[in-house]
Amino acid sequence: MRQHYQKEFENRVIIPAIQFMQRERSSGIVLGLSVVAALILANSPLREQYFSCLDSHMGLVFNGKPFLNFTLEHWINDGLMSMFFFVVGLELKHEFISGELKDIRNVTLPVMAAIFGMFVPAMFYSFFNWGTSVSAGWGIPMATDIAFALAVLYILGDRIPVSIKVFLTTLAIVDDLGSVLVIALFYTSTISLASLSVGFGFLLIMFISNKMGVKNVWFYGLLGIGGVWIAFLMSGIHATIAAVLSALVIPADSHIPEAAFIARAKKLVKQFEQAEGNDMRTLEPEQMEILSKVQTDSRRAMPPSQRLEHGMQPLVSYLIMPIFALGNAGISFIDMDLTLLTQNNIAVGVFAGLLLGKPLGILMAVWLTEKVKLGKRSRHMTWRRLTGLGFLASIGFTMSMFVTMLAFDDVDYQVQAKTAIFAASLLGGLLGY
After folding, report:
1. Which residues lie across from 66 on neighbouring strands?
2. Structure confidence by residue, pLDDT tens digits, 257-286
3. Which of 49, 176, 334, 348 is the most buried (most CB within 10 A)?
4. Which distant-in-sequence residues (6+ apart) come within 8 Å of 270 by Cβ?
5. CA nearest to 170, candidates 81, 80, 103, 78
């Protein structure tokens, strides 16, 4: 009876759950539900508790002094999101080594698209707000939220060619790194050069270790989190850039080459066939030892970067990203004074910059790059698809809201910018889809 219920539970719950998680679009569905949940919480009787929870501080205390003491929202955006950017960095490294980005001509287009996709939205905002007291918000519409943009794209699954996904991923990464640089140069009042030096010092150690043949993932994890990430977090630079840089120095070659692994695997399989077995459900010690060697060799045949990417992908897709959405997508529309949106041109500048500036800048970049023969589109990258990607890139959320908090101290200004970010991101995501 117990085995019957156990089998029934596996068939009805475990197996369907695994099949759901294996679909590309499933993570986008979970992310979308998390956004809806955040909006419901932010506009429900529980909204005070919701925002109070996000504003609560968490940290450590050494000698009576707080250390790494940040709000829960800060920990989500700089801590958990670093794991997402780490996985993205691993994926990009793989593409640079043996994927779509191996050919430099494939990199030129998304890089130029990212640059124009930042510059044109900033110009749109400045056009509406130049010389006013709110001109500092020009950096708000520059950013693309890679998480949401890719989630919308991945909902479409296999209908979208890999080259299109790689293009948007590369564009969003360059865009995000550009936004981080803008924050560091124009929106950061104090940058600790000492902390930055420590962070780059740990990166150098990881790079040298890679070249020396060190393949232990725990070693890189300790230096990446305990060294690079904490140093960047303390420096005033957005910590997610530390995750991307750390991912790029993770070894991409394995202990055992493919040919050697195949030869050893064939030998071990032959030994397993010849080993004396039994008629029971259990294996003999000799068989267990052979299988243990197969398991060890299989692990050593996987490059550390791909092993980390494969292992962390479900965690990021089904835990990190939903938590991120719950913490960032909650905008309260209750008691919002709509006349705030007409007091100045913050909302107009942000909305136009994201929804019009982003796709226009990307299309201009691709057209110009092809005209001067610095790059060429793949056969899958039609102008129609590029227009769709341009609208997906207008999803601003995380970094745009982050820049909003840095650009404006006035709460009313922040509300105007956030409302425009939400509206442009929602409309851009729908049009892009």
Report:
1. 61
2. 888 888 888 888 888 888 877 777 778 788
3. 176
4. none
5. 103
Give the start-to-end residue ranges of the domains of the chain.
16-188+237-253+303-432, 258-300
Q: What is the DSSP letter of 373?
A: T
Q: What is the torsion angle, in degrees rounded to the nearest 10, for the CA atoms of residue 74, residue 325, residue 162 and residue 383?
A: -100
State the Cα–Cα distance between residues 397 and 394, nearest whole angstrom: 9
**Count of CB atoms situated within 10 Å of the CB of 46:** 12
Between CA 387 and CA 379 the distance in angstroms is: 15
- DSSP conformation letters of 272-288: HHHS---SSSSPPHHHH
367-414 pLDDT, tens per residue?
999 899 888 887 788 899 999 999 999 988 767 877 887 788 887 888
Cα distance between residue 310 and residue 73, in whole Å? 27
Which CATH fold topology does 16-188+237-253+303-432 show?
A: Na+/H+ antiporter like fold (1.20.1530)
Going by the DSSP 8-state scheme, the letter that residue 77 receives in this structure is I
Q: Which residue has the tokens 């990307």?
A: 362
Rg (CA), the chain: 24
CA pair distance 128, 130, nearest whole angstrom: 6
Buried b (16+ CB within 10 A) or exposed e, 258-283: eeebeebbeebeeebeebeeeeeeee
Q: Who's near 198: CB < 8 A, 6+ residues apart?
A: 227, 231
Q: pLDDT for 343-373, tens place per residue?
A: 788 989 999 999 999 999 999 999 999 899 8
Token pair for residue 42?
């932010």
Q: What is the pLDDT of residue 71?
A: 84
pTM of the entire predicted model = 0.72
The two structure tokens encoding residue 283: 């294996």
* Burial annotation 103-140 (CB, 10 A radius, 16+ → b, else e): eeebbbbbbbbbbbbbebbbbbbbebbeeeebebbbbb
Which residues contact residue 214 at a Cβ distance below 8 angstroms, ignoring those fewer than 6 apart?
220, 251
CB count, 10 Å around CB of 144?
Answer: 36
